[in-house]
Amino acid sequence: MPHFDMPLDELRRYRPDLAEPEDFDAFWEKTLSAAREHDLDARFEPVDAHLSTVDVFDVTFAGFGGHPVKGWLILPAGTTEPLPTVVQYIGYGGGRGLPHEHLLWSAAGFAHFVMDTRGQGSGGSAGDTPDPVGSGPAYPGYMTRGIEDPHEYYYRRVFTDGVRAVEAARTHPLVDSSRVAAVGGSQGGGITLAVGGLVHDLAAIASDVPFLCDFPRSTTLTERPPYREIALYMKAKRGAEERVFRTLSYFDGVHFAARGTAPALFSTALEDMTCPPSTVFAAHNAYTGAETSMEVYSFNDHEGGGPYQQNVQLQWLPRHLKG
């Protein structure tokens, strides 16, 4: 697939005029306050993952609505002092998988907290967290569940889980609560942006080819799922467009980026038709943190930088987590 979006010089200047709800901050303050009425109840059960270089804990904590959310905490074997910590969010359709799928950050000397994504985990990597909340009619997938009401929308629950995951990680005695970073790719990158906009004392965030950004453009520019789920929903439900985009405005990564304060590392790929580069630059260009950088992969699709971007992160994150 050749380049299909704006030229790179235009991407670097792209700042869409997106309608932000007047009650955006109040909506999220009320949402998180309601979640915190439930005891976090973070539990870390040691498991034998048959790995000699790491210690693994099966995590359960209370997310949105007090619902139990699963995760992994993976530590370098024999850790006795609190470590800087990477909290990771998973791409669309995937779940927390198995511990041996998550060895990068512990190998680099960090504690690594992997959050499961509620209701997902049947596409690519297995999940263990149900979503007990139902919704009205929806197109197959997760993008349109409750999409005509921001209070009912699926990602209200997921983003709240993401914030609670940081809070849960910080309760473990071997996690240095002052040195926590959020990372993720695609959907995980979108969750990272949301958490970065809602948790104001993170040490850093790293958002790769992030999903859930600039909905008015992304839903009309690409024919690929998952964004296409939204268009197909509106194709069947004529007249829902205003309600749908009003809901999505509460979940747009651009609005969260405008509230981010931690140093941020982004990446995009110029042939990415799943998360088009203009939508990623929209979030990057709105980001308000003191240090922001973007890695651009000119001839890649949604795989982005892959291991090359991980190598960039391995050099970048220690500067913010290890001092």
Characteristics:
323 residues; 11 helices; globular
Describe the structure.
The protein is globular and about 55 Å long. The chain has 323 residues and is an alpha/beta fold. The longest helix is centred in the middle third of the chain and has 16 residues, at 154-169. The mean pLDDT is 96. The chain has helices at residues 8-11, 24-36, 104-107, 154-169, 187-198, 215-221, 227-236, 241-249, 253-257, 277-286, 307-321; strands at residues 43-47, 54-62, 68-76, 83-89, 111-115, 122-123, 125-126, 175-185, 204-208, 264-269, 292-297.
List the helices and strands and how they pair.
Elements (H helix, E strand, L loop, with lengths): L7 H4 L12 H13 L6 E5 L6 E9 L5 E9 L6 E7 L14 H4 L3 E5 L6 E2 L1 E2 L27 H16 L5 E11 L1 H12 L5 E5 L6 H7 L5 H10 L4 H9 L3 H5 L6 E6 L7 H10 L5 E6 L9 H15 L2
Parallel strand pairs: 4-5, 4-8, 8-9, 9-10, 10-11
Antiparallel strand pairs: 1-2, 2-3, 3-5, 6-7
Number of helices: 11
Spatial arrangement of strands, main beta sheet: 1-2-3-5-4-8-9-10-11
Please write the string of helix (H) and strand (E) elements: HHEEEEHEEEHEHEHHHHEHEH
Q: Structural class of the helices, strands and pairings?
A: alpha/beta
- Beta-strand percentage? 15-25%
